Amino acid sequence: MKVITLGEIMLRLCPVERERFVQADRFTAVYGGGEANVAVSLATLGEESVFVTKVPNNELGQAAVNSLRRYGVDTRRIVRGEGRLGIYFLERGASQRPDKVLYDRANSAFSLSDEHEYDWDAIFDGADWLHFTGITPALGERARALTERALKEAKKRGVTVSCDVNYRKKLWTLEEARPVLEHFMQYVDVCITNGSQAEEVFGITPAQEGQEGDIEIARTVLERFHLQTVALTFRRSINADINRIAGMLYQNGTAAFSRWYEIDIVDRIGGGDAFGAALIYALLHGFSPQETIGFAVAANCLKHTVEGDYNLSTAEEICALAHGDGTGRVDR
Amino acid sequence: MKVITLGEIMLRLCPVERERFVQADRFTAVYGGGEANVAVSLATLGEESVFVTKVPNNELGQAAVNSLRRYGVDTRRIVRGEGRLGIYFLERGASQRPDKVLYDRANSAFSLSDEHEYDWDAIFDGADWLHFTGITPALGERARALTERALKEAKKRGVTVSCDVNYRKKLWTLEEARPVLEHFMQYVDVCITNGSQAEEVFGITPAQEGQEGDIEIARTVLERFHLQTVALTFRRSINADINRIAGMLYQNGTAAFSRWYEIDIVDRIGGGDAFGAALIYALLHGFSPQETIGFAVAANCLKHTVEGDYNLSTAEEICALAHGDGTGRVDR
Amino acid sequence: MKVITLGEIMLRLCPVERERFVQADRFTAVYGGGEANVAVSLATLGEESVFVTKVPNNELGQAAVNSLRRYGVDTRRIVRGEGRLGIYFLERGASQRPDKVLYDRANSAFSLSDEHEYDWDAIFDGADWLHFTGITPALGERARALTERALKEAKKRGVTVSCDVNYRKKLWTLEEARPVLEHFMQYVDVCITNGSQAEEVFGITPAQEGQEGDIEIARTVLERFHLQTVALTFRRSINADINRIAGMLYQNGTAAFSRWYEIDIVDRIGGGDAFGAALIYALLHGFSPQETIGFAVAANCLKHTVEGDYNLSTAEEICALAHGDGTGRVDR
Amino acid sequence: MKVITLGEIMLRLCPVERERFVQADRFTAVYGGGEANVAVSLATLGEESVFVTKVPNNELGQAAVNSLRRYGVDTRRIVRGEGRLGIYFLERGASQRPDKVLYDRANSAFSLSDEHEYDWDAIFDGADWLHFTGITPALGERARALTERALKEAKKRGVTVSCDVNYRKKLWTLEEARPVLEHFMQYVDVCITNGSQAEEVFGITPAQEGQEGDIEIARTVLERFHLQTVALTFRRSINADINRIAGMLYQNGTAAFSRWYEIDIVDRIGGGDAFGAALIYALLHGFSPQETIGFAVAANCLKHTVEGDYNLSTAEEICALAHGDGTGRVDR
Amino acid sequence: MKVITLGEIMLRLCPVERERFVQADRFTAVYGGGEANVAVSLATLGEESVFVTKVPNNELGQAAVNSLRRYGVDTRRIVRGEGRLGIYFLERGASQRPDKVLYDRANSAFSLSDEHEYDWDAIFDGADWLHFTGITPALGERARALTERALKEAKKRGVTVSCDVNYRKKLWTLEEARPVLEHFMQYVDVCITNGSQAEEVFGITPAQEGQEGDIEIARTVLERFHLQTVALTFRRSINADINRIAGMLYQNGTAAFSRWYEIDIVDRIGGGDAFGAALIYALLHGFSPQETIGFAVAANCLKHTVEGDYNLSTAEEICALAHGDGTGRVDR
Amino acid sequence: MKVITLGEIMLRLCPVERERFVQADRFTAVYGGGEANVAVSLATLGEESVFVTKVPNNELGQAAVNSLRRYGVDTRRIVRGEGRLGIYFLERGASQRPDKVLYDRANSAFSLSDEHEYDWDAIFDGADWLHFTGITPALGERARALTERALKEAKKRGVTVSCDVNYRKKLWTLEEARPVLEHFMQYVDVCITNGSQAEEVFGITPAQEGQEGDIEIARTVLERFHLQTVALTFRRSINADINRIAGMLYQNGTAAFSRWYEIDIVDRIGGGDAFGAALIYALLHGFSPQETIGFAVAANCLKHTVEGDYNLSTAEEICALAHGDGTGRVDR
Q1: Is E273 labeled as catalytic in the residue annotation?
Q2: Quick count: other Cβ atoms within 10 Å of Cβ C323?
Q3: Is-contact A98 A21, C-beta < 8 A?
Q4: Cβ neighbours of D324 (radius 10 Å)
Q5: Helix (H) or strand (E) holding C115
Q6: ipTM of the shown complex
Q7: Which residue is closest to B326 within chain A, CA to CA?
Q8: F267-292 mean pLDDT
Q9: What percent of chain E has pLDDT over 90?
Q10: Do A317 and A303 meet the contact criterion of CB atoms below 8 Å apart?
């Protein structure tokens, strides 16, 4: 199956070991971004994964492309031109000290790119699915127009559309985000969100607590935006090293809940993207709701154990965790 | 506010990753020492922080000075001359294997320095506070004389004096330490210690257990030495990777207890020094007793997440933890 | 006391930090193997430890030998010749992602070596003990013949023989392993195994659960093979980072159980070998059953905190843990 | 243009910095091999580059494939199956100490692969060129059969064939190599070799010295094997750090000589492959003989400045050197 | 003596070892920039060195400030505010492959800063010298205005002004640069340039070759802009690893030439800045013309052996080279 | 043959890459010292090599011992006790910047050890040769007494004695060194020195220049101290990266000169020790004078290409260079 993802890919710079920014004289460099991460996950799972973006025509742009090719993503639709590559600096937290993200992504080649630079017919040729996140429209007017263009192109071809709401307060205010994201929901079939985003962005406060409340949130989102599927991710942050995660799938008036995982985190970034990719994969492959949410949450869990933005877990590994005990025994 | 700290700064050499000494072919080099750590913390918190010591006039001495300047400490009062820089080797433990400290600090330029080498008037010009620890007098006769000289200079100028008792059994015996430390307490206004030190060094065994016992210890110390303030640190070592810490402040007959933190440790060294610096800061800025101890313990906690001896946490970060939930969520 | 160990030593290649194989562009290189690990442990404990193997006469073979010499193992009986050094690749897991071992050890110089290449008289001159594991006969016909030759040489000289059953499913099937291992048990005095191996390899399913079942397993193994001593290791894998371990010693109809340790793992490989070496040491030195199992399990625990295959813990450190609280306080 | 390369890709392990094998506890891991290096160069130059091999279906095989995808090679024709990935260890020399290569490539999945495992129609669909080296037939009977099959498939489709003679004395003897390589020359259009190989493998000793002798060698090879083009590489090894290189192209009875470069070597491996790829590129693009040899030698030169087996120099960079002064001024 | 430098400080990111950008997954991070480099050199030489810039009020801005403080620069006049820190990526070349600089410095906090944000009285209080380079006015309108303001403030206080012409073609065209730089020359007392800049920027083509031509260039510049002193740097680039450098000082109608150094380069960046700082130092300390140029060129030479932008050579070391033989014997 | 070496082994700490001390936050740790280096070379050459010293009974002492065992040195005669391990810091120079050695070796366990702590009978049992250097008596009174005791023990058993004069100005003055070294020459059979030492220490200024002068120096030393053999090393330091070396052997009134090598240096330390060890080896094995000096200088040359103090070159490698062309071609 062919899945299109559209968004920004950035250079991520992270001090080695647990050094703080003010100590750092070495940075680990990887490339990533919400939709790029989804693209790599899908390619690793064996799907035909096409990532669409614009990168500068310099070595950093090339390195970003190479990072995608390395893991099997189709990068032929990526546009190149003037501009800079967005950067984000990540300070790995520890225990009570939180991870810190410092964005230096303004004026990136992608955020300033124009919808007419992209070859939409080539992009959507044979496509089954389009995925985007709420980060892309947060990047400015042009990125918003680009997002809408992609959504329209998808809809006119009957391509399924999924959206990970992903509200980022460092990029725009809730006041800016709300109307844009609500407007884009008209194109969406599958929505990924969580409780606090549903409340902040869509103003949904469930009357009940616990699983009933979660179901209420999902049902409200689904109904308000006429969706097919809503997936919720749950995260309890014990500290910067230990998180507990789970998920829920809501379809056809029924909710399926996954088990909970307690994770010793290696890399906190990209868990939600791993979840999204695995969800798309499971839905494309006709997994049952229970299997779908189990697979997606297991992928999310495993991502936390992999360095970098990309989830490099295979379908076999994710299944082994979803159906196994997660005890991490040596395989020898 | 201008705070003076006096003591030894050493080169700390620690095998990379978790290697043991007998495996190590690379050492991470940082600089530190009880009072130097306090000096860096105070500079990071925004105070005028003056560190006084003697270093050899070679590149290692210069590097030690540079490490202080880097974080904003005033190093103009540091004396240079013949001799060596003290070294300590640190083997990072793990789980049931403890951290191991191997001192190679004998005959350092500082420990052999003479009180007449220092320009006391320049040092104390405009000073508000003097901090020292029980490590300095443990370094020998000259360091003891130097400490007393500094204490007398402080007292004659009405400068507040704080002492972190910090008994180190690898430097001197209890029999040697007891009379010296008790003698120096006459100059002290604020004393930082803990239960086991109070028992070993000052012979104080509380009649009660729990918080009542802690209050009894603090009150006894305060009354015996006519102090203004006593702060106690609490530590429960689960293993080399996980510790629980808290603290108590005793002033005016009243005790304030902080919350407990369970910490996944990045670097075990310098927590007490971070506590001391934050305590001085809070007292200088007129924090309430409850805020003071909360701030100092949060600083202690955060230090455990920072590599090296120095606590590079800002006042804003410490406040965020003291008033927050410590869940270490990503800030993005 | 002089202890002989016979087996394969391999180059172990492990991606730096927590990188996955598909990310790795740097590997940490150490050398190890079941019996080599026991040999290093015994040398570190102060015994006269002789390791017998065959390595290729190239720089990698030399480096393997050097790694043993470095820690005091007598390597003069090692044969050199044509062939390759076995390699194993280790991907360090994390949390729910298991460690992964990828063997590339086929056709090693050792596995193809002939019993006549070894100087058995020199090897066993003055020997007190021979240790082997179930890995060696798994390496093929020649390695099986070699193992039996060594066992016969030991028996004819009255040397005590210990065996760590160590069934490895990636090397041979249970159908292949069972008759071989059962046949070799006739030479054995001290057997190290665990519950699942006892069931898989020897077909022993205890009627009871818990400690009674463990005792039943040990007694059955001991009686069936006319052994002197049986030691069981217990491991509960919480996840790839956290394991709980303990052990039991069965001798003279009596079982001694150790305490349990919960370990934050630095390196998962070689724990059982550390256990075996410490067990041999304790039996050779006449420790009581309770002290023996306590010492062996403490060694196993400490190995998990040391990088590489080798346990570099001294007898003093192991005793400190066995008799201490395992709280990992800094020693300064 | 579509260029097919067929051969083995190996994991290359090289001690970090200038460490010797017996010192090494860290290896840098890259992937490479004569034909794989040519494939990456061609992809970097912008050609459609298809690499054909067999890798084991484990993570190392995947990592080798990823290394090719990263730089744009088409890896869809790579076969996967049982077996191991060949390894070569490289000890970087210095000054008078030579680089040392230690092969551990016997029994690799590729060397044991069967010609029937490959989809020759898909491989050669639309192909313009096939490149192979003398290393592949050196890997054994099966690899020889596989090579011949590929050559026949190429010839029957009118695909141009180039061969880099590349005799490796650690893989086979001259007696073994001579008849095989001479036999394969019947399929070849473009041959890359050098003076000492021409003498050792083809028994050609020029009557003259200097350029006349070089021309004589090329003419003899060309005429004996009815070739279209012969390219010679020249190398003068000053020491392990400094080499001088040049080249000659012989076509239509005329020789074109390049300039000489004196190189401070970063990585000695893969220079000849970079030369071969650039030669193919230049011939495919109709460069003049003088431009062709200039471009190929400049590519060879630049490869020596790039770490790893692959030449990551762009056509623009190679041209800049071929037409420039090689003074290495900063571009800012 | 108090020297003011004004300019931009950037984060410099350089792949480890000799990796190319497309290979890099680790970057070494240092901070630097033309004027910042001069400031650090002067502080290392023992002068009172004040660096004036604007940095973002985030951790990267703080880290840039810390890098200056570490080496003794007075950073109290640095402004903080909104914006980003400029970045430049440096790919270390080798042999015939040139170093490559990739600027990502547009829209930096400094380049957008306003002259009214700076406290000119505090900056120039007690100042003896102001140094700037042609890079600062290349950063845009605001930076140009800022530069002129600083120059006027200097002039009105009788502060000596030096300028390093430093034309950067990646920042502006010659057409843009020429009028600006010529205009600013009215404020300058001491000008540092080289032959090609003199030709490109000021249109000066000497009638003669060799030293006579160099003297002609210097005299023309000096006379045209009514300068006190002109210094020329000479560089012959053998390749990216080896350069030859020298310099000339022109004052009072007389030229002094230095010796030539052939350098095996460790880090190519910042040599000119080291020259400038040493020149200022020598002029401030009344060195003779011959000693001045010898000292400045020796500083330039030594900088090439130091990693990072900053020259960390002491006056003693520079003198030792200027008066010595440069044979690099071990000092032990 | 059994060779005894006696001296101090130190921890050597060297900043990674080419960092200066004031930049360094990582040090590479190796162990070495003049006589220890000779011991490792001899063990690598296949001799029975016994190193005698005293190390502290802590982990650093153990690590020093392990470094020797790793390469096959017999360490059973090493004494352990109170004290510290000497340290030396090495700043690797580059081009015109010299290597810098910073000693921190005062008060080491060895330098304070007493001759009665050593078991001389065990040390000299079966010994053929004793080697020492002028560094040991430079360490103080006790080390001088220890040296003389060893020399007397050697002489009384008819053991050949070699001495590398090795005057170190950072350890003692010429006035102190001269009488001590002259006194010890009475015990010496084979003396290694060079022209400047011969002049400074022994006051020998040859009347002639060039080879005649060298012969005159050697003859004078030999005759004055009644030696059997004198070896001279020649070094021309082009810069910190490039040296030229050669050597001369003088015996029975005849001099043999080696060829000259120009070396691109990897590690400058230990070349003379490699020379000494190879000289002893060649003399013990009855090489001709010409072969002896050729072998010793080739060993010296190769040491410069090996990181650390130890020369890890095999006899086969040294012979290959001595008889070869030193062009450093890849061996594959």
Answers
A1: yes
A2: 11
A3: no
A4: 14
A5: none
A6: 0.95
A7: A96
A8: 98
A9: 97
A10: no
**Rounded Cα gap, residues B76 and B69, in angstroms:** 10
User: In this complex, is the C-beta atom of B62 within 8 Å of any C-beta atom belonging to chain F?
Assistant: yes
| Residue in D328, D319, D197 with CA at minimum distance from that of residue D262 | D328
Q: Tell me if E170 sits within 8 A of E103, measured CB to CB.
A: yes
User: CATH 3.40.1190.20: does it fit domain A2-323?
Assistant: yes
Active-site entry in E267, E273, E309, E325: E273
How far apart are the C-alpha atoms of F242 and F224, rounded to whole Å? 35
The DSSP 8-state label assigned to residue C260 in this structure reads P
SS3 content of chain F, % helix, strand, coil (to 5): 40, 25, 35
Q: How many CB atoms lie within 10 A of CB C18?
A: 18
**Gap between the Cα atoms of E137 and E150, Å rounded:** 12
Cα(C191)–Cα(C189) distance, rounded to whole angstroms? 7
Write the single-letter amino acid at B268: R
- CATH code reported for the domain at E2-118+125-323: 3.40.1190.20
Is F306 an 8 Å CB contact of chain B? no
Q: Is the CB of residue D300 less than 8 Å away from at least one CB of chain E?
A: no
- Return the biggest CA–CA distance within chain D: 54
Amino acid at A32: G
- What is the tens place of the pLDDT at every residue in D24-68? 999 999 999 999 999 999 999 999 999 999 999 999 999 999 999
- Say which of B214, B273, B325, B331 is annotated catalytic: B273
Nearest residue to F105 (alpha-carbon basis) of F135, F76, F85: F85
Task: Give tens-digit pLDDT for E184-221.
Answer: 999 999 999 999 999 999 999 999 999 999 999 999 99
Which tokens is A123 given?
């992009």
Measured between CA atoms, how close is D15 to chain C, in angstroms? 9
The CA distances from residue D256 to D146, D192, D293, F142, in Å, are: 34, 14, 7, 73
Q: How far is CA A321 from the centre of its chain?
A: 21
| Buried residues in E86-100 as b, exposed as e (16+ CB within 10 A) | bbbbbbbbbbbbbbb
Contact B308, B30 (CB under 8 A): yes
- Are B298 and B278 in contact by the 8 Å Cβ rule? The answer is yes
* Residue pLDDT, tens place only, B192-223: 999 999 999 999 999 999 999 999 999 999 99
Alpha-carbon gap: B244 to the closest alpha carbon of chain C (Å) = 11
Pair C180, C146: CB distance under 8 Å: no
Contact predicate F27/F45, CB 8 Å: no
Residue B155: its pLDDT value, please? 97
**Cα angle at E126 between E120 and E127, to 5 degrees?**
70
Dist. CA A278–CA A300, nearest whole Å? 8
Verify whether the Cβ–Cβ distance A66 to D66 is below 8 Å: no
D72 touching A (Cβ < 8 Å): yes
Residue E105: both structure tokens together: 């410095």
Tokens of C156: 């004819």
Question: Which two tokens mark C49?
Answer: 């430890």
How many angstroms separate the CA atoms of B248 and E267, rounded? 52
Read off the tokens for C249. 């010693």
Length, in residues, of chain C: 332
CA pair distance E147, E126, nearest whole angstrom: 19
Decide: D229 and D199 in contact? Cβ < 8 Å.
no
- Tell me, what's the pLDDT at F324? 87
User: Structure tokens of E115?
Assistant: 């002259």
Q: What is the model's pLDDT at position A329?
A: 78
Residue B20, both tokens: 């043991």
Q: How far apart are CA B292 and CA B71, in angstroms?
A: 23
Instruction: Decide: helix, strand or coil at residue B144.
Output: helix
CA distance F137 to F172: 10
* Single-letter amino acid, residue D246: A
pTM: 0.96
Taking the C-alpha atoms of residue A302 and residue A290, their distance in angstroms, rounded to an integer, is: 18
- Kind plus residue range of the DSSP H or E element containing E161: strand E160-164
